[in-house]
Amino acid sequence: MAKPTQADAEAAVRVLIEWAGDDPDREGLLDTPGRVARSYRELFAGYATDPRTYLERTFEEVGGYDELVVMRDIPVVSFCEHHMLPVIGRAHVGYLPSNRVVGISKLARVVHGFARRLQIQEKLTAEIADAIQDILEPKGVGVVIEAEHSCMTLRGVNTLGTTLTTSRLRGIIRDDPRTREEFLRLTRA
């Protein structure tokens, strides 16, 4: 099956505008189909890349560093795969290196790469943790995501301000109570 074109996407947006009850030829909506299609290309950019590749360049000169590496408050912008509405929150990612580390910007890129797809938060959390574990082979990995789901806050049960928290702990971060507690303490706001 051929991938839909920009024109196909714009035509679909025109149909949605009509379905909603408005006129896509109205002055204020004339350029909306193009804008929406372009914004979706950006919002779903995670399909155009393999986020795991960001972790391939590592550094072995760590000066004997053998403690947790934790990056907090990485912005998460994703879309609920059930309603195609925004999921907005923060990810906290950490790992205990075994013999190499990755540039810190790569952790944020991995989060963004997996988030910029249609997702459920549980899968997103697992994909990030599993990629770090598989590529870096650290002693342990932890990922915590806290996010607000527009599918719950803007429609349905209308529970504005609620967040969902998910976690995926691997290796020593899961199995050693002290390391687990340290990781969870470092990721709390």
UniProtKB/TrEMBL annotation:
Swiss-Prot/TrEMBL keywords: GTP-binding, Hydrolase, Metal-binding, Nucleotide-binding, One-carbon metabolism, Zinc
Domain named GTP cyclohydrolase I: residues: 10-187
EC number of the protein: 3.5.4.16
Cited NCBIfam families: folE, PRK09347.1-2, PRK09347.1-3
Taxonomic lineage of the native organism: Bacteria, Pseudomonadati, Pseudomonadota, Alphaproteobacteria, Hyphomicrobiales
Binding site for Zn(2+): 80, 83, 151
Organism of this sequence: Methylocella tundrae
Name of this chain's protein: GTP cyclohydrolase 1
Any one GO BP annotation for this protein: tetrahydrofolate biosynthetic process
Catalyses which reaction(s): GTP + H2O = 7,8-dihydroneopterin 3'-triphosphate + formate + H(+)
Assembly description: Homopolymer. Toroid-shaped homodecamer, composed of two pentamers of five dimers.
Gene from which the chain derives: folE
The keyword Nuclease is annotated on this UniProt entry: no
Associated pathway: Cofactor biosynthesis; 7,8-dihydroneopterin triphosphate biosynthesis; 7,8-dihydroneopterin triphosphate from GTP: step 1/1
